[in-house]
């Protein structure tokens, strides 16, 4: 059974007004809408994910009195765990229940007509999330895996924003969890689109057996 996972197509990630706009991100909204309704695809389930942050989320530069896009070393949120991870601080984005965190209007309207599953991530303030399956530490799991299992999904097709962050990490999680994983490249946009970044990305996808179609 096949599921379409639409990652973080939310106003704050879309030009021209999003606070963390992905270049050309707005150009994939209508194609995604068509993909949802493409009868040849026969999606068993369609899932839309949202980055869904409290006001003081740890990934916001403001919280650390830093400039957006500066680096940070995150400490594990687990007491006694000395593990760290390198990260990037972002402008404030996708605050829960604001215009910025809303799905792009055409997708939002779609959710009024049909019952698509919405999965939120990023709502614990003390940790960063990229994958729609879990936080960057793989401690807190979202409901995504359980939902897909419940509906006997074995294959996932991933689209949305951004290719080199949340789409990538969601695809890696899915592949590790045993799903046959494909990223549909015409329905996603990267933050960094230079040749070197794209080549690295493709190598990474290959190493996890993720198809870029
Ligand atoms: Zn975020």
UniProtKB/TrEMBL annotation:
Its EC number is 3.5.1.19. It is an enzyme of class 3 (hydrolase). One of its GO terms (cellular component) is peroxisome. GO terms for biological process: negative regulation of DNA amplification; nicotinate nucleotide salvage; rDNA heterochromatin formation; subtelomeric heterochromatin formation. Keywords: Hydrolase, Metal-binding, Pyridine nucleotide biosynthesis. Residues 3-196 form the Isochorismatase-like domain. The keyword rRNA processing does not apply. The keyword Disulfide bond does not apply. Pathway: Cofactor biosynthesis; nicotinate biosynthesis; nicotinate from nicotinamide: step 1/1. One of its GO terms (molecular function) is metal ion binding. Signal peptide: none annotated. InterPro entries: Isochorismatase-like_dom, Isochorismatase-like_sf, Isochorismatase_Nicotinamidase. Belongs to the isochorismatase family. PANTHER family: LD05707P, PYRAZINAMIDASE/NICOTINAMIDASE. This is nicotinamidase. It comes from Naumovozyma dairenensis (strain ATCC 10597 / BCRC 20456 / CBS 421 / NBRC 0211 / NRRL Y-12639).
